């Protein structure tokens, strides 16, 4: 299914964000997909600007997220935009515990 690609890619970013690097074999097992699918997902993430790179550790390749200021963006929001974020968080309250609700809360905390 097409929608499952996005969900898998979001889970892949969360795995990468745990640090320490990630092998394709391990990630494919965690996400329940083939290694080929995982490589395609990594290319998609790179194309959309996720700062992911490949690193060699001996004979093994590991994928990592770039460390540093990638997580801090300077964004100025208008009152209406802040209100829209707040309303979005409230609308997503029914999805508490999911990626979407947690992301809305996180976004609001960043602009507080």
What do these coordinates show?
With 112 residues, the protein is mostly helical. It folds into two domains: 2-67, Winged helix-like DNA-binding domain superfamily/Winged helix DNA-binding domain (Arc Repressor Mutant, subunit A); 73-111, no CATH class. The protein has five helices and two strands, in the order αααββαα. It has helices at residues 2-17, 24-31, 35-47, 79-91, 99-111; strands at residues 52-57, 60-65. A two-stranded antiparallel sheet has the order 1-2. Helix 4 runs antiparallel to helix 5. It is elongated and about 50 Å long.
Short description:
By secondary structure, the protein is mostly helical. The chain has helices at residues 2-17, 24-31, 35-47, 79-91, 99-111; strands at residues 52-57, 60-65. 56% of the residues lie in helices and 11% in strands.
What is the number of strand segments?
2
> If you consult CATH, what is the topology of the largest domain?
Arc Repressor Mutant, subunit A
Radius of gyration: 16 Å
Structural class: mainly alpha
List the total number of helices: 5
Helix content: 55-70%
CATH-defined superfamily of the largest domain: Winged helix-like DNA-binding domain superfamily/Winged helix DNA-binding domain
Shape: elongated
Low-confidence segments: none
| Widest sheet, order of strands | 1-2
Please tell me the CATH architecture of the largest domain by its name.
Orthogonal Bundle
Mean pLDDT across the residues is 82
How big a fraction of the residues is strand?
Answer: 5-15%
Distance between the termini: 37 Å
């Amino acid at each position: 299914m097409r929608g499952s690609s996005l969900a898998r890619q979001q889970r892949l970013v969360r795995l990468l964000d745990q640090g320490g690097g990630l092998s394709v074999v391990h990630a494919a097992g965690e996400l329940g997909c083939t290694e080929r699918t995982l490589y395609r997902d990594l290319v998609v993430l790179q194309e959309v600007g996720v700062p992911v790179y490949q690193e060699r550790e001996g004979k093994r390749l590991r994928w990592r997220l770039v460390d540093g200021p990638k997580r801090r963006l300077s964004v100025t929001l208008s009152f209406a935009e802040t209100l829209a974020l707040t309303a979005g968080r409230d609308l997503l309250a029914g999805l508490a515990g999911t990626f979407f609700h947690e992301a809305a809360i996180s976004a609001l905390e960043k602009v507080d």
